[in-house]
Task: inverse folding
């Protein structure tokens, strides 16, 4: 398998971000990202700037809906109007155009100190037909916890990732586990990068710059073959991997997740995360963490079934179910932290 790092959910000057696509691509190159996905609010105006900039593929999606039920849509062909109160229409229209999408920051909370408490959670849980869920969103999680001026100051200038280091919201993982027991639902991570700028006297301050957020919550794709040299073919490979869930989320600030592996082996056949297989005699699941000091947890149908402090985990499967892996980063001193979240392997009876 070949792993590639990407940053999803980015706003540019085509909506309320402050960076041009060229500037975002430069920041992504500096962070060694293989791809970025720009998702401006209700516009695909940046689509003509898609392409490869240095090592980074720039792909343009869109963030649909305004008041609530934000939906990150990829591979759409025409602009879709604001269906905030009826998000099933949004999902259906994206699918009709041959695209796919993710429920964005579904449990977002507001803070009275940020944009007057505005929050845009997913509200309508009767929907179906979506591809996946954005499980971990840097900016959204930060905002929700920024409930006092002191916290904001101490976190931003002292321990900037503190509100996010706790991992994806519990209720988000719980919901995802409930969905994936029934059918495949892809989990991704995003930063919701805006690189907000404001003036303090003569000085322009930029908070959460792209170049900083590109080292935080990234989504890696796993491909059986390397990314193709031809840009449109590579773009298709990236989109297919995200759509199928051949991907995992990594909090890159600790260490890049290139060397992570999770998959099933069925004799000689390999089943990558995101895919289904039948329970057979010789079926094993394997997890490999990117570094020796790691803590691995294996989860079946939302329940922890196996955990160990190790770089590798090998598990003989005897029960069908939805299996996913989590890796915690173990620093030399201090407590272990949520680091990598795989998509599931679906094992049928
Ligand atoms: Zn949003
Ligand atoms: Zn957004």
Result:
């Amino acid at each position: 398998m070949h792993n590639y790092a990407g940053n999803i959910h980015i706003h540019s000057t085509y909506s309320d971000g402050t960076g041009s696509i060229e500037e975002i691509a430069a920041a992504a190159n500096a962070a060694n990202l293989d791809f970025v996905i720009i998702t401006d609010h209700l516009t695909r105006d940046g689509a003509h700037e898609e392409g490869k900039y240095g090592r980074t593929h720039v792909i343009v999606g869109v963030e649909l809906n305004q008041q609530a039920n934000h939906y990150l849509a990829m591979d759409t062909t025409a602009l879709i109007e604001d269906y905030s109160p009826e998000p099933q229409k949004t999902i259906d229209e994206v699918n009709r155009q041959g695209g796919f999408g993710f429920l964005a920051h579904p449990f977002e909370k507001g803070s009275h100190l940020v944009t007057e408490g505005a929050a845009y959670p997913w509200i309508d849980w009767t929907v179906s037909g979506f591809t996946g869920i954005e499980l971990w969103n840097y900016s959204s999680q930060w905002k929700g916890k920024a409930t006092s001026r002191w916290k904001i100051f101490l976190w931003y200038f002292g321990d900037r990732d503190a509100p996010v280091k706790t991992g994806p919201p519990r209720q988000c993982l719980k919901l995802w586990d409930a969905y994936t027991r029934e059918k495949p639902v892809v989990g991704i991570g995003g930063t919701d990068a805006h690189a907000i700028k404001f003036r303090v006297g003569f000085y322009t301050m930029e908070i959460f710059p792209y170049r900083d957020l590109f080292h935080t919550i990234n989504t890696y794709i796993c491909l059986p073959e390397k990314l193709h040299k031809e840009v449109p073919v590579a773009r298709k490979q990236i989109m297919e991997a995200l759509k199928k869930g051949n991907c995992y989320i990594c909090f890159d600030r600790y260490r890049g997740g290139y060397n992570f592996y999770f998959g099933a082996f069925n004799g000689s056949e390999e089943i990558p995360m995101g895919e289904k297989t039948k329970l057979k005699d010789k079926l094993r699941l394997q997890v490999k963490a990117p570094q020796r000091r790691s803590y691995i947890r294996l989860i079946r149908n939302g329940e922890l079934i196996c955990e160990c402090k190790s770089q590798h985990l090998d598990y003989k499967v005897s029960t069908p179910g939805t299996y996913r892996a989590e890796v915690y980063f173990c620093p030399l001193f201090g407590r272990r932290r949520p680091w990598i979240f795989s998509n599931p392997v679906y094992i049928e009876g």
